[in-house]
């Protein structure tokens, strides 16, 4: 699966420019690093080897040829004068002249040799070279170091590493002083956090008339972070009967997890014929149940001491076959359960090429990447290396390997960086320089195993806070996982712990409390905003992640939305109330008898959106209702008509609404259906208008009722019987953003006067309420409120002798359109 880096281009270019800028004016320490002049021998010496200039160069005309080496340490060196405690970057290029016999590849390393004024001698590696063969040509070997903070008598850098029989070329050697970070680096990191981890949130807010502004507030609560924070967990504690406190902390604190040992090949298969899938499977299941994402650690670990011992006596072909079995087995077993896999752990820093060396296949890990991706194409594949941000000895070789995999189109999705920091204040400059190098690849960087040693608990809290702040600010870092944060009931690396104790003795220490505060509170958004007007656009900047946003009225949530905020931010439309303020206006009672009518208008400032009627005795004896016009008062009216055979009055119920913006309605003339049973008449609304309420009238009681057809923007009235047709009318309304739906209830019971009701969904208001029954015999409909909600209530007007013939309530539910958050 080729890795697509198109979307990484801008980020990579920016990081490269920033990284290069730091070195343009840096002081160069190395003399004759390009070997272009004869005088190079005054600065370079070759202990246990011979050196000559040759015209096979990386840059310029000449390079240094190193041969006749007597030992692995034998190589060219140059003595330097370094500044106490200063930070330096080393860069060079090497090329093998012959391959190491019996090895699939080898490497050249750059070291420093120090003699202190007290006579003490030290040798420290500066940089691992990439794995090399003669076919690879020129390759970069680099690293970084901080000079000792004490007096030095002698300081030199030198090249060493491969078998003495291997000769090689060296060229373009450079050592440059890197300026220290500003004392305000943490303030600058906080600014970058705001730039890189936060986004704009716009709350387009409407507060309906039903809520008083003074009693209303908007609560913005971040529930989870888009940025992954996680930690290593122990399988025995996740599964342990008495470890609920540990599990509760993991559940509350970490979004991602890595199982420490239970998934490693050596631990799963200590003996060839004994394979433990049960422990990791149960642990993974428990973590998924807790809602955690999981990094699989690891498919293989090529450092010799971590290879299953029973592999070591096998032939090359047998080892290959076992690797293939391991890959197919473990990846298939956890397919769909893991988000990441570390494929071959510590292949560079730990000389983790055991599998390559013992199969004779230099490209075995590449094959593993391809095979894993074929089995589980959704899991993201990583390398996982140490000595990156902690020392920098691995970084340049790591970048070389990442770029090689990218060039081959291999499915490498991210760069795993461990980060086991040694005692003492963290070197933020070292972390920065190494992260900047990794960022040039364009792949996301995950800090996979961070722990920091400090005996003093306050220092430990300070160090964790500083390192996490810088890591969180760096745009290339896409996730942070802590490693040894809990003592597992034993004082192992206790100076890194953020919590300790088993069972009921589990307890978070002061450093752990500070990390909780940082991750769960400082880097989470929680705001309460008071709207000052009915319509408002409120802006804030919040951390990326998932939010719950509530509109509270007198402390009670009247609107709640779940919103995801990503890099593009989010615009959230909050509409508390429908935007429509509607009431029911009831008429007086009509006279009794055929053709007796009664009307009701809306109040001034209100617009009629619906009209219904009901028989006082809950019988079917009524002819229905219609929209009308009172020419004397020049007002829209809702008219109810009594029927022949009635023994009680009828009432008209107008649904009257208003908006804080213009609402306009029109009322198409009544039209009659055919005279047959169940014949319908459809009254279309003018273009751009929506039916908010419908009516039905038949001068012989023979009607089934009416309902809006939103798909056709029309009102439908249905006839019942053959005594004449039914007439339909409707309210056709428009307003900016007006949106309506129809809600229809189940059937009522079959007894006279039985009720059935339906309500609108939250955020909608009833603009029209009707009764409908394809078996006729309706007694009317009206809107009523109880329990803080409004309902459309329909009345059954006839005793039914057969089941499932009761009436239905039809509610027209409208609101001012409120789209979901866009992000």
Automatic annotation (TrEMBL):
Signal sequence span is 1-26
What keyword terms does UniProt attach to this protein?
Answer: Carbohydrate metabolism, Glycosidase, Hydrolase, Polysaccharide degradation, Repeat, Signal
One GO molecular function term of this record is: endo-1,4-beta-xylanase activity
Any Pfam family = PCSK9_C3
Biological process terms from the Gene Ontology for this record are: polysaccharide catabolic process
In what residue span(s) does the GH10 domain sit? Answer: 223-518
What's the name of the protein?
Uncharacterized protein LOC106181603
- This protein's species is Lingula anatina (Brachiopod)
């Amino acid at each position: 699966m080729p890795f697509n880096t198109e979307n990484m281009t801008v980020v990579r270019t920016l990081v490269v420019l920033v990284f290069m800028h730091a070195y343009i004016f840096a002081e160069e320490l190395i003399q004759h690093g390009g070997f272009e002049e004869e005088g190079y021998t005054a600065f370079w010496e070759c202990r246990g080897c011979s050196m000559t200039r040759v015209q096979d160069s990386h840059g310029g005309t000449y390079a240094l040829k190193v041969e006749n080496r007597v030992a692995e340490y034998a190589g060219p060196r140059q003595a330097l004068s370094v500044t106490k405690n200063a930070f330096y970057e080393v860069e060079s290029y090497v090329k093998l002249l012959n391959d190491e016999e019996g090895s699939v590849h080898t490497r050249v390393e750059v070291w420093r040799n120090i003699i202190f004024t007290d006579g003490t001698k030290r040798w420290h590696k500066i940089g691992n070279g990439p794995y090399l063969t003669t076919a690879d040509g020129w390759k970069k070997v680099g690293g970084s170091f901080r000079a000792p903070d004490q007096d030095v008598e002698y300081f030199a850098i030198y090249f060493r590493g491969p078998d003495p029989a291997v000769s090689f070329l060296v060229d373009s050697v450079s050592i440059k002083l890197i300026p220290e970070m500003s004392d305000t680096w943490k303030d600058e990191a906080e600014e970058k956090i705001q730039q890189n981890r936060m986004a704009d949130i716009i709350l387009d807010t409407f507060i309906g008339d039903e809520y008083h502004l003074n009693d209303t507030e908007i609560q913005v609560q971040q529930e989870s972070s888009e940025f992954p924070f996680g930690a290593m967990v122990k399988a025995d504690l996740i599964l342990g009967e008495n470890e609920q406190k540990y599990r509760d902390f993991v559940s509350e604190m970490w979004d991602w997890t890595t199982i420490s040992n239970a998934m490693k090949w050596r631990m799963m298969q200590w003996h060839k014929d004994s394979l433990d899938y049960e422990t990791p499977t149960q642990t993974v299941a428990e973590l998924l149940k807790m809602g955690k994402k999981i990094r699989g650690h690891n498919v293989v670990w090529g450092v010799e001491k971590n290879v299953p011992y029973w592999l070591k006596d096998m032939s090359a072909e047998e080892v290959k076959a076992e690797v293939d079995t391991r890959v197919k087995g473990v990846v298939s077993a956890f397919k769909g359960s893991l988000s990441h896999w570390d494929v071959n752990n510590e292949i560079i820093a730990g000389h983790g090429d055991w599998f390559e060396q013992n199969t004779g296949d230099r490209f075995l890990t590449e094959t593993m990447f391809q095979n894993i991706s074929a089995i589980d194409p959704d899991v993201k594949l990583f390398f996982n290396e140490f000595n990156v941000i902690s020392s920098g000895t691995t970084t340049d070789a790591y970048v070389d390997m990442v770029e090689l995999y990218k060039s081959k189109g291999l499915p490498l999705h991210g760069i795993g960086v461990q980060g086991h920091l040694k005692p003492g204040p963290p070197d933020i400059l070292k972390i920065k320089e190494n992260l900047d190098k990794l960022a040039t690849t364009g792949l996301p960087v995950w800090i996979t195993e961070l722990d920091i040693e400090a005996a003093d608990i306050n220092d430990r809290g300070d160090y964790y806070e500083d390192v996490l702040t810088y890591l969180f600010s760096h745009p290339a870092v896409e996730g942070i996982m802590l490693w040894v944060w809990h003592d597992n009931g034993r004082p192992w690396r206790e100076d890194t712990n953020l919590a300790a104790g088993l069972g009921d003795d589990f307890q978070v220490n002061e450093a752990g409390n500070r990390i909780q505060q940082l991750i769960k509170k400082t880097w989470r958004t929680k705001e309460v905003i008071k709207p000052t007007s009915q319509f408002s656009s409120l802006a804030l900047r919040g951390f990326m992640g998932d939010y719950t946003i509530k509109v509270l009225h007198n402390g009670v949530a009247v609107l709640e939305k779940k919103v995801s905020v990503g890099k593009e931010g989010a615009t959230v439309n909050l509409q508390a109330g429908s935007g429509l303020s509607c009431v029911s206006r009831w008429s007086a009672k009509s006279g009794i008898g055929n053709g007796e009518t009664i009307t009701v208008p809306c109040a001034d400032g209100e617009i009629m959106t619906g009209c219904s009627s009901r028989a006082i005795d809950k019988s079917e004896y009524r002819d229905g209702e219609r929209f009308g016009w009172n020419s004397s008062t020049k007002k829209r009216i809702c008219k109810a008509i009594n029927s022949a055979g009635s023994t009680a009055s009828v009432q008209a119920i107008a649904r009257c609404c208003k908006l804080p913006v213009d609402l306009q309605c029109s009322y198409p003339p009544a039209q009659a259906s055919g005279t047959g049973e169940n014949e319908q008449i459809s009254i279309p609304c003018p273009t751009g208008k929506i039916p908010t309420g419908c009516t039905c009238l038949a001068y012989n009681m023979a009607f089934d009722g009416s309902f809006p057809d939103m798909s056709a923007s029309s009102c439908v009235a249905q006839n019942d019987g053959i005594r004449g047709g039914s007439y339909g009318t409707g309210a056709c309304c428009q307003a900016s953003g007006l949106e309506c739906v129809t809600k229809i209830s189940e059937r009522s019971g079959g007894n006279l006067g039985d009720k059935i009701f339906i309500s609108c969904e939250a955020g909608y208001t009833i603009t029209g309420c009707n009764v409908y029954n394809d078996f006729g015999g309706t007694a009317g409909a009206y809107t009523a409120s109880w329990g803080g909600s409004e309902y459309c209530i329909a009345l059954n007007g006839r005793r039914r002798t057969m089941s499932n013939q009761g009436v239905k309530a039809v509610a027209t539910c409208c609101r001012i359109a409120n789209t979901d958050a866009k992000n």
